[in-house]
Amino acid sequence: MQKITGIALVFAVVGLTMASLAAAQGGAVEGQWPTYGGDLGHTRYAPLDQITAENFAELEIAWRFKTDNLGPIPEYRFQSTPLVIDGMLYSTGGSRRAVVALDAENGELKWVYSLDEGARGAASPRQLSGRGLAYWPGDDEGTGARIVYVTPGYRLMALDVATGRPVPTFGTEGLVDLKTDNDQQIDPTTGEVGLHATPIVAGDVIIVGAAHRTGGNPRSRSNVKGYVRGYDARTGERLWIFHTIPRPGQFGRDTWLSDSAVYTGNTGVWGQISVDVELGLVYLPIEAATGDYFGANRPGDNLFAESLVAVDLHTGERRWHYQLVHHGIWDHDIPCAPILLDITIDGEVVKAVAQPTKQVFLYVFNRETGEPIWPIEEQPVPAGDVPGEWYAPTQPIPTRPPAYDRQGVTLDDLIDFTPELRAEAEERASYYRLGPIFTPPTVSRLEGPLGTLTAPAQGGGTNWPGGSYDPETQILYVSSNSSLGALGLMPPYPGQSDMDYIQGNAVTGPRTSGGSGSSAGGGRSSFSVPPRPRLSPEIRRRAQLTVQGLPLLKPPYGVISAIDMARGEIAWQIPHGETPDHIRNHPALDGLDIPRTGQPGSVGTLVTRALLIAGEAQAHTNASGDRGAMLRAYDKSTGDEVGAVWLPAPQSGSPMTYMLNDVQYLVVAVSGGGYSGELIAFRVPEA
């Protein structure tokens, strides 16, 4: 048996009351932040207004907490959103995903728990600190409150909230092995499944998703299936399982032709999950099936891949579903939490759920029934020419709201700062296929096309941070990344994969980094990369989606959109983020007045009674020569910037806020660009 070791260091025993979890929607209550999204509906809203437009630029740092010593090496991708309950702040951190409890007033460390999972942790497809944790408040029978999270090695752990020690009555000494009792065989060490996202706790049920390696170059068409499970918060006993790829006799099995459901994997929930406790429904945003860009091995529409599925909180039974992408070959995983919101339409209050997506459609449904709030039309989409591929003839396109960022690529989208840059951009684009959204990938050829240009790029659009919602104004806010990608396919190298095609480019070859599908048992493939033919510099440049180092597409490159959910209309849009240094300082643009372009990247937003708040995804150099990023505040009704404070590194986790001893705090995780993970807490200056 593999040995695992854990250590809890307790610096003080902290007395806590039983704080109640937030309701399904309506925002974080009582000045706390008890769940990842503020409430179980992931509105990321707090009804606080001490931090305002008038004082935001004057915010001072209340405390800061570096995570370097929470693992064997520093972490440079620190994505946590902490919890705050009864004056204590809880977060994951460090390269080993330790858990810390801090005094929320001054950042003092109260306890830390760290688990060394050895080879299992090292083999995990989802390492580092993840995105946070969840909280169970205990019960009236004396069972104490708990912090729960998923380790890098895919174990569900429960810690005593006061001491940080594993709860001995939960699972086996505080641990539930998520690679077991999963209705499939998974190698305990190398089985390719993990989770960056947090579990979610609703009532006495803990719901846990599943994630895999990125799937552009699978080593096999066969992989672990990303089933979702519910567990008893007291004992760790499995209560239910939802098969995201239906088993024989289950609804949706007939959407997997040629018996492809037997071996196909993925279809996990790697983003956050939302819950409406009153309705007893759990909302699952499900990812793509194995093979992000090639699906000949899985003909059919492939339910429940790329679907929003509502299941019963207590049984896991499907109540309704809606597939947002049929037979996905674009990596359009549903990446983030569905947002639960009550909206007024024609004088009637409707319980709704809104799903941001990588393809920058916002799909909106009645969250009780799954019926679209506004019509969603099945529209014909282009067919492709990849040998053996199965193509869905239509895709579901919402009629409202409109797409909230650029979709597809045409010549009109190319950079046009100067005629010379425009001409070079057109020449570069001529080696690719252009078209509307859902234009399929193509086999990459040196003579062209090298691939299909796609916007948003494969990462979105909107990715894991998702959006936020103001229940008082019924406005939803969402950030999006407007960068460009290319979808090209190539046969794999000998021994690299058992699939006919994987992601690649004829200039650079098949992609060799990452790649899901080592098989459910966890075996690894080994292969040699043969020498690539020598190509001229002119041909090598064709693979670059840039022009003289500038983006091939015109700005904006990062956008925040405000969407009026009562009307299904975009209220305003702004470029978010300072113009990157390489654009501001580019010699070809010298003397040109380039408005703020925004920045590519995924950032989370926070909405309060007073402000919309979001940090920048990239570092830039300020007028003083310092490298860092800005945490910006916007007027909620207009999008006008009303204040900003300096960060030493980009925002890498979504911001949150809380009230303690009559002081509002604003906390954000930063990292990247050579800066290791840190939590920074801001407050209004003391009088």
Tell me what you see in this structure.
- Helices cover 4% and strands 31% of the residues.
- It has 687 residues and is mainly beta.
- The chain starts with a strand and ends with a strand.
- Residues 12-20 and 515-523 have low confidence and may be disordered.
Short description:
The chain has 687 residues and is mainly beta.
Shape: globular
Strand content: 25-35%
Radius of gyration: 24 Å
**What's the count of strands?**
43
Helical content band: under 10%
Whole-number count of domains: 1
CATH C-level label:
Mainly Beta
Mean pLDDT reading: 94
Sheet having the most strands: 6 strands, mixed
Determine the structural class based on helices, strands and strand pairing. Answer: mainly beta
Using brief descriptors, characterize the structure shown.
about 675 residues, mainly beta, six-stranded mixed beta sheet, five-stranded antiparallel beta sheet, 4 helices, globular
